[in-house]
Amino acid sequence: MAENGAAGGGGGQNLAVLDALDSARTQMYHMKAIVIAGMGFFTDAYDLFCITTVSKLLGRLYYPDTNLGKNPPMPGTMPVRINNMVTGVALVGTLMGQLVFGYFGDKLGRKRVYGITLVLMAACAIGSGLSFGRDPGAVIGTLCFFRFWLGFGIGGDYPLSATIMSEYANKKTRGAFIAAVFAMQGVGIIFAGLVSMIVSGIFLHYNPAPTWKEDKYYSVQDQKPAADYMWRIVLMLGAFPAVATFYWRMKMPETARYTALIEGNAKQATNDMQKVLEIRIDEEQEKVAKFRAANEYSLLSMEFARRHGLHLIGTTTTWFLLDIAFYSQNLTQKDIFPAIKLTGGADTMNALREVFVISRAMFLIALFGTFPGYWVTVALIDKMGRYLIQLLGFFMMSLFMLVMGIKYEYLKSNGHALFAILYALTFFFANFGPNSTTFVLPAELFPTRVRSTCHAISAASGKAGAIVAAFGVQTLTLKGDPKHMKQALIILSVTNMLGFFFTFLVPETMGRSLEEISGEDGNVAGAAAGHVDKDVEKAPPSSTEWQPPSSMNA
C-alpha cells in the first residue's frame, strides 16, 4: 500500500494515489505517454517550420517581377507584408489556440480536448496545400486561412501535452519526461528540412531548368507545374503524423491528478492508477475533499497572486523573450544561409534548386545544432536543474549573437566556418537552455486547477514573442542587407540577456512533487522557497511490476 504523506514534503500530507505516482519507477506506460504526446510536437514543429523551406519558392512562382527593377536584378520574392503574413499567421493561430485549449483543459479535462487538436492539425495541414483560385491573392489567401487554423490546433498541444506528461510522471524523472516530449520538436524540424529536401530533389531531377541568371523566364516557367505541386505536397505531408497518433491519444486515460483534485473522484483516480501500478491504494475520499477545499482559489484571485504571481510573470516574460530569438533564428534561416555560404546566391539557382539547398542547410543546422541541445537537456535536466540550464542557455545565446552582430561583415567575408559554428551554437544553447526549460517549468509550478491555463498563458506569451520575430525581426533580415542583419543580431542578443535576468523570478522545481511545488499539499512556504528535496535521490525505486491498463491497450 502506498504511504500517505508527501515524500519530502516538509509540511503537508499528500494523497496516497499521488504518492504512488511520484515514487513509481520508470515504466513502459511512461514511455508510451512520451511517444503519444511527443508525436504531437513532432507534427507541430514540422508544420510550423516547413514553411521556411518553401517561402522563397512562393515568391518566385507568384511574385516573379518584384525585384527586376533592382540593381542587380534578382529573382522574385514575396512582398514583405505578404511574406510576414505567410510565415506569421500560424503563430497568431497558435497563440489563440493555446489560450482556448489551455482554458478548456482545466475546465473539461485534459483528455476530452486532447484529440481535437490533432484533428484540427491534420485537416488544416491538408487544406494548406489547396487553393481556391489560381491568382496569387487566392493562393496566398487560402494558405493563410488554413495555416491560421493549423496554428490554432498546434497551440492546443502545448499546454495539454505538457500538463498531461507532468501529471503522469514520477518526481525523480519528471523534468526529463516533459523535456523528451518537447524534444520531439527537434525531430520535427529535422524532418521539415529532410522531407523538403527529398521532395524538391525528386522534382528537380525530373524537371531540370536553367539558373535564374541564365534565363529569368524559364528558370521558373520550366519548373512551374512541378514546383507548384512540390510546395503543396510538403505542407500536406504534415497531416500524416497527426492521423497516425489520433487512435492512441484517444486511448489515454484522464490524469489521476485531474480526476482526484479537480473532479473530486478519488475512487476513479485510484482505480486508474491501480491498473497502471498494480498495487492497492487507499481511495481517501475524505482527504480529497480537504485537498479541494484548500485549493479552490481561482487564477484571478489574490491568493493566486500571492502564491504564484511572480512565478507567472517569470514564465511569461522568459518565454516571450526566448521566442523572439528562437523564432527569429528559424524563420530567418533562409536569409542567414547565404551569409555563411550554406547556400549560394538566389540568381545562381533555379526555383527548385533553391528549395533543395535551403532545405539541406536547414536539415544540417537542425541535425548538428538544434537536435543535440534538446537531448542534452533531457539527459541533464534532473541533475543540473531547470534554473541553471535556463540561465546558461540565455547567457550563451546572448554572447554568440552579440559576437555575430558586431563582427557580421568580417564573418560574412572571411570567416564562413566560424560564422556557421557560432550560428549552430546559438541553436544548441537555445535548446540546451530556455527553449526546453520554458516549456517544462509552467507545467510544474502551478496548481492542478489552473495548471493547463497557466501553461497556456506562458506559451501564448512565447508566441507573442514569435509574432514579434515574424513581423518585426524578419522585416530586417528579409533582404539580407548587412546593416539590418547586424541590427537584428544585436537586438536578439539584448532580448536574450533580458531573459537571463527575468529567470531569477522562477524557482527551481527539481526533485519535488507537483503538490509540494504548488503548495497544494499545504506547505505554502516550501512552495514559495523553491528548495530542492535532496532526499528524493535517496528514495529506493519501487519494485512494483507494471502491466498496461486496459484503456491504453490496442
From TrEMBL:
Region annotated Disordered, chain positions: 524-554
Top-level lineage group: Eukaryota
Domain Major facilitator superfamily (MFS) profile: 33-511
Transmembrane region(s): 33-62, 82-101, 113-132, 138-156, 177-206, 229-248, 361-381, 387-406, 418-436, 456-476, 488-506
MF GO annotations: phosphate transmembrane transporter activity; symporter activity
InterPro entries to which the protein is assigned, alphabetical: MFS_dom, MFS_sugar_transport-like, MFS_trans_sf, Phos_permease
Alphabetized Pfam families for the sequence: Sugar_tr
GO biological process entries: phosphate ion transport
Keyword Transmembrane: yes
One Gene Ontology cellular component annotation held by this UniProt entry: membrane
Subcellular location: Membrane
Gene3D superfamilies: MFS general substrate transporter like domains
Membrane topology term: Multi-pass membrane protein
Biased composition annotated in UniProt, kind: Polar residues: 541-554
Keyword entries, A-Z: Membrane, Phosphate transport, Symport, Transmembrane, Transmembrane helix, Transport
PROSITE patterns: MFS
Protein family per UniProt: Belongs to the major facilitator superfamily. Phosphate:H(+) symporter (TC 2.A.1.9) family.
Protein name: H(+)/Pi cotransporter
Protein species of origin: Hordeum vulgare subsp. vulgare
